[in-house]
Every structure is written in structure tokens, then in C-alpha cells.
Design a protein that fits this description.
about 100 residues; globular
């Protein structure tokens, strides 16, 4: 299975890569500048939900929604972490995270 990041979301802690075509995602911890190790393997998800009126998003891991991951998008002048910038990603390193 080929993974292609079609959506990238930045949270304060991680960069989330979503392959919408294959319904899989992985997280890369921002402090790992080498990007050689992802915080998670490519994992199947059922739905990516954005909470209206907030910067929060929820990743549904199963159809009935009993397993979910919730995070929020990192923004400039972020109230959550006080950060001002996002991390630059190396596309070659991201490509090496994919599995067959």
C-alpha cells in the first residue's frame, strides 16, 4: 500500500500526516528533527472531524467512535504552547516513513 500525505495538520506537539485515499495517518513528533522515527506507524482511521468554532480535530479510529484521538491545530501566537512558528518538514524524510 502506497502512502501519500494528502493532508498535513500541525498540533503543538506533532505533525499529523493523513492519507485520505487510504484512510491512514501517522504522527511525527516535532522535536525529532531527523523524522526518522514517527510517533506512530501508519494507522487506519474512519473519520477526521473538525470541531466547528474551535481549532480542535478528532480522529475516529473505529466506526462506532469509541476509540478517538483529539488534538488541536497549532496557530501563530498559539495560546496552548506560546509558540510562534511551525516546523519545516523534509519531504524525503516523510516519504521514508511509508510502508508497503
Amino acid at each position: 500500500m502506497e502512502h501519500r500525505a494528502t493532508r498535513i495538520l500541525e498540533s503543538c506537539h506533532s505533525t499529523w500526516l493523513f492519507d485520505d485515499d487510504n484512510k491512514t495517518f501517522c504522527r511525527v513528533i516535532k522535536t525529532d528533527h531527523s523524522l526518522s522515527i514517527a510517533a506512530s506507524e501508519w494507522t487506519e482511521f474512519c473519520q477526521l472531524e473538525f470541531e466547528q468554532g474551535t481549532d480542535s480535530f478528532v480522529v475516529w479510529l473505529n466506526e462506532d467512535g469509541t476509540r478517538r484521538l483529539r488534538s488541536w491545530r497549532h496557530l501563530d501566537h498559539c495560546d496552548s504552547c506560546g509558540g510562534e512558528a511551525t516546523t519545516e518538514l523534509d519531504l524525503t524524510a516523510i516519504a521514508s516513513l511509508k510502508t508497503d
